TrEMBL record:
Gene Ontology molecular functions: hexosyltransferase activity; hydrolase activity
Record-listed substrate binding positions: 170, 268
InterPro entries: Glyco_trans_28_C, PseG
Keywords: Hydrolase
Active site: 17
Pfam families in the cross-refs: Glyco_tran_28_C
Entry protein name: UDP-2,4-diacetamido-2,4, 6-trideoxy-beta-L-altropyranose hydrolase
EC number per UniProt: 3.6.1.57
Record domain Glycosyl transferase family 28 C-terminal: where: 250-301
Amino acid sequence: MRVLIRADASVTIGSGHIARCLTLANVLRRDGADVRFACRELPGHLLQRLADHGCATYALPARYGAEEDQDIEAALPWQADLSAFAEEIEHEPPFDWLIVDHYGLDARWEKAARGLADRVMAIDDLANRPHAVDVLLDQNYSAQALDQPYAAWVGPDCQTFLGPRFALLRDEFQCEPIAIKPRVERVLVNFGGFDAAGQVYATMQALQGLDDMQVDFVAGLHNPHWQAMSDLAASRPEWRLHSLTGDFFARMQAADLFIGAGGGTTWERAALGLPTICISVANNQQLNAQLLAEAGVHVYLGPHVQLEAGRLRAAVEQLCGDVPLRRSLAEQSRLLVDGLGARRIADALAKVAHNAAKGQGA
């Protein structure tokens, strides 16, 4: 099976789209699939990371004409994007699957791209625009909690996979839960691969004075507050500051409390039963984070732009002193995911392709 994935990463977009697509790609590749990525060369792109994982890549332009810098949900000039995309793969035979994970692309791009692949899949979180695809995945809790969120956005023949049962998690998250200790000894802070919102630094400032905990701050690449954070961490022997870390899973396992955003690590934390204080750093995280809080999965403090340091510190102190609450958060989290979501999606794609081939043979 030949699979082509269209997704981007950047300082503005973040790394989550590439991270989850790479997780699915690794499962497909273990099954023998040839998986390739097409990504724009935006500031902070992850083309080299994909190549390091053994995936062939196609580099697309960072800009199309006079395109201006846009936010994460802004529509791309879809015709220009498709033209550049098609030019990169013009000598390739058609792919079995084209997977698109991009808030800036919709049914217009998907319809026009059908000449490049036999089938098209979309990965989405927003349920706010039409899709012309055979399969759609939304791994958010909001996708299963709301009543048919994609009914108006996909055709009747589209298979939908909705909710954290299908969360694209790496194999290590098929794991046992962490132990909930009587005392919080280690805290892990991370707000994504880039932390454009500067929330790691804000959390550092809020945690000053809490001296009885070991804290790992994973600040991400190109963090705008790196020097100030380095100065703060240098004065605190119980704090450790990292840009990225190759053993993030091990650090999560060792933590008693996580402070972070409402993106892809939500499901990693849930798999581990890691009690979490969540702060949304993008509009598209807010609904999911709020619904998870109402379900008792984490403590949600709202958008970062509205959060005062004192409120964050009070939430940390509350959770540190409330073992039953931490245990309840862990138990509710573990009900959501089992780490097999990528396997389920890979099997579904293979089944659709197999059935189509079987039908053509008949």
